[in-house]
């Protein structure tokens, strides 16, 4: 009956969807896909998604009820025609026949027309819901703090926003209205049959019991199979993607043959699961068909027996046979709908869990503006850590109570071993996290009280991982300031020494980084990231290991830019390489979350502390 | 059809399934006939006893129909899943053997959609359209034959909408498939945006770009909304047609039928049978359109699949993968075994120099002669990236490769294991031209650590062991390699060596990944080692430790190390400077620092001077002053020929340093 494509289970597997990676430790809810959420959060979510479309939902419901009535009246008219119109015609009266004929055709037209309106209304509802849901996930994911992102991992977040929404979309697009239609038509037909002839009607209703059992058993069995198949699909996809993305190491280490074998195994597992799923489907179809056909035969026998005995009209029997056909037709598809319904419910639950996470770095309710800089003053701003303490939620205090004042315009280098708390310091200053205790102040205003736009005009951070967004190189630089002109973008690139390599790319600034991103080296990506920061022109600049992949001329271009274009800005520089330290006005040596040495570089070098040792080691490496 | 080789193993079953399906459809069509016999026979004659026979017929036909349905599905379920799997396997194996340039050109998502969606479409094509076009065609013909024999007038009335319905459905499915594809693309774009906004969350937060991201997101999701609504409109139209047309035909047939029954020209049973046959025929008629559209789509899918499969393999790959012989298996156990294992294949080069003594062995080591390279998609008119590299790395020697950003260092490292083929010139390993070597052998000899340390979703053990090639490495070897790369953090991982890492596992820091990649490169004790900036993500302490351990390893191998920093250069015996597509200078670090201005700029820049100003007693000072002069001359000489803006910035930097 259906002309809609994709009713035969189109399973698009989610890359990395199902397999839960190992997490921080036992008992951490972030280990699971499902985040702790208030009970029934998914229903609340569904309710709030449907709320704006309430009128349409009711309209759709009414349309469907009327439409199904129009559809199901057909066989009844046939019965009437056989039992009443024929005798009437034989008696020379044409009225009943014409009435029946008009009614039948009218119902057909009404059914078609209403169906058309219903599909449009339902699509409008479901598409609005999807847009709303996607938007909510997106905005929520963006507003959640880095703390959350680091623990929940990007893979899981991405599969929430893509494959889970996709499952819901599949249900809404390909199944839900049909599922409701089936339920509604079953109800109609059941009632009609019982009314037409309660004995035969009850037999039909009774057949629902084994059918229900068959659907349930299919559902139970197929769920396991489908789950196995989607796991197998995900495994195939992960292996495939990983191989293609890492083709260089694959080739260099001659992984082709071991990979062939590994992939063949995964592929075979997928083949088995796929076959099992198809067979399970076959079992179900055969089972339900059998039940349906046996019922039809039973009703035909009993009905015919009674018609022959004169206890029932022929037309009623005809109507029964026609109704039964309609009743059992969609059963093949019912099992499939139930499957997609179940997975959509699971997806909704996961999404609800995600949306229930409260952002730990919230926007201020009453933002305080940054004080205006006096005319002619340097563009930098003063930074103060006031009794700041920071501990990760998983435990482990990183910064014990910490006080630090960085005067406006000062360049501070922070050095120390891995885990000394340098990056935490930077992240607190960028307000990626909020301190557990105490405050971080920018020109006397707590960061937590600044509106996001003000905060980002004030503080910009460049990190070690220089991620490029899809789009052109110019667009990537313009992220620093979206309203900037091409000339400004190029000026920023020139100032940082990135212009030469960009100009040498096939399309210069208009080169798409995704298409040729493979050939933009790590160092070049860092230069792009710097150009971004330069364009943003912040009052406070944080560099967190941002020069690790740069070669020395690159690093010097950065230092040069800081000394010229960014002169007068407050800067916090974290670096392994001590070369960066040379341009600093002040050096902080950190250990175990504390500043153990503090002073101008020239002083610290001549002193006999950690910094002097570090500096000596670095000098040695330069020989 | 090019699918033939894949379909051949299942063609018997496919054919059988078509036959069975036709039979099942016939059963379904016969049921109304049995019904008619029942109604016109025992029922009319008021013979309750005769009902049983008719009922039994209906039952048997029903059971047969259900059974045949099952048989059909059972016949094709596994074989078709098998076809899909076989095609996927072939695609994967082919893709692994296609050259790196191919992968540079094709996004992995494109390849993935061929391996999943397109193959699924093809499987569904084999399962449905291929079989059902035949079956439904047959059903329609048989069904209408039955209808026409029952009553040619009513039959003709019902036949009326068939052709328009088929055409409308086909037209609809074609435009629907287009819209669906567009929706899919837009959904893909949206997913990309989401992915990037999650992966780039630090940058978005650091620059406060939530709003522009959100705007982009909203725009794209509105676009998708529009397409989906377009789809819904198409769908609503087709449903209206599909529901209305046949109902009108049946309604007319009902009118005429009732008249004929009343006139006694038609039996009541015939009318009942007629109407239920008409219902049974609805699906076959409606399906023709969408089966045709699916076939269309399958055609496209097949084209996309074979587009990849038809890309020619590089000539020797095939033999290369078959060749890795057992004789080389022992090569991983120690450098001393190397020559013995290599002998059979490289016997025509009698002189093997493994003494590690630089200066001996003109043939040995790594030799590049006039090597040229350009990317196939480089804009026409642009110069080659490498314009004639000449370099000789003596056996046992470690050569550092230094050059400005974008000078082609990483590309050069890809040429040695022939990940990219040189477009000109010759590269020899111990005198043997790599162009003539089987790939497997070449890559057995040369181990690489890439700038971007890619770990695979596997245990630490497997990730490191794969460096030894398919032969693998034992735990002792792995421990040794981990020790060299200072991977002591491995012991603190939750599962030690068995901890899962990579995309699906524990995420490691950049430095940790880099050290594991280094361990992977050295685990097989390769004869030739290529390291691309192997220490960039390490902090100063770890770097020093890794260096010390790495020196031991490098002593026994011939190595090329890309270096950005003096500390990495210190690993090497000599340094080569890559500039303007060729090696312009070779020498020790100290020599080059003294003699070559560009090198000095790359390695120390103004630090040299800055440092000298602060540390007066530095013994290097004298040399430094000499170089300063040289730098000025060389800089001036180059300024005309080679536009490098960094040169221009030099004075400014000095100025700022002096401040």
UniProtKB/TrEMBL annotation, chain A:
* Keyword field: ATP-binding, Cell membrane, Membrane, Nucleotide-binding, Transmembrane, Transmembrane helix, Transport
Care to name a GO molecular-function term for this sequence? ATP binding
Span of domain ABC transporter: 383-617
Q: Pfam families, from UniProt? A: ABC_membrane, ABC_tran
Q: Which InterPro entries match?
A: AAA+_ATPase, ABC1_TM_dom, ABC1_TM_sf, ABC_transporter-like_ATP-bd, ABC_transporter-like_CS, P-loop_NTPase, Type_1_exporter
Which residue ranges have biased composition labelled Low complexity? 1-29
Superkingdom is Bacteria
The answer on whether this UniProt entry bears the keyword Secreted reads no
Asked if ATP-binding is a keyword of the record, the answer is yes
Localisation = Cell membrane
Q: Where is the ABC transmembrane type-1 domain?
A: 58-343
Cellular component terms (Gene Ontology)? plasma membrane
| Entry's transmembrane regions | 57-82, 94-114, 179-196, 202-219, 311-328
- Segments carrying the region annotation (Disordered) are 1-33
* Membrane topology qualifier: Multi-pass membrane protein
PANTHER family in the record? ATP-BINDING CASSETTE SUB-FAMILY B MEMBER 10, MITOCHONDRIAL, ATP-DEPENDENT PERMEASE MDL1, MITOCHONDRIAL
Similarity comment: family membership: Belongs to the ABC transporter superfamily. Lipid exporter (TC 3.A.1.106) family.
Its protein name is ATP-binding cassette, subfamily B
TrEMBL record, chain B:
Extract the ranges annotated as region (Disordered). Answer: 309-367, 604-659
Extract the GO molecular function terms from the UniProt entry.
ABC-type oligopeptide transporter activity; ATP binding; ATP hydrolysis activity
Keywords (alphabetical) are: ATP-binding, Cell membrane, Membrane, Nucleotide-binding, Transmembrane, Transmembrane helix, Transport
Q: Which PROSITE patterns match?
A: ABC_TM1F, ABC_TRANSPORTER_1, ABC_TRANSPORTER_2, PROKAR_LIPOPROTEIN
List the residue ranges forming a coiled coil, or say none: none
Tell me the protein's name.
Answer: ATP-binding cassette, subfamily B
Q: Where is the ABC transporter domain?
A: 366-605
One Pfam family named in its UniProt record:
ABC_membrane
Q: Which InterPro entries does the record match to this protein?
A: AAA+_ATPase, ABC1_TM_dom, ABC1_TM_sf, ABC_transporter-like_ATP-bd, ABC_transporter-like_CS, P-loop_NTPase, Type_1_exporter
Q: Which organism is it from?
A: Actinacidiphila guanduensis
Bilayer topology: Multi-pass membrane protein
Provide the transmembrane region boundaries.
Answer: 12-31, 51-71, 124-146, 152-172, 238-258
Compositional bias (Low complexity): 331-344, 620-642
GO (cellular component) term, any one? plasma membrane
Where in the cell does this protein reside?
Cell membrane
- The record places domain ABC transmembrane type-1 at 16-297
Residue stretches of biased makeup (Gly residues): 358-367
Superkingdom of this protein's organism: Bacteria
> Predominant location of this chain?
membrane
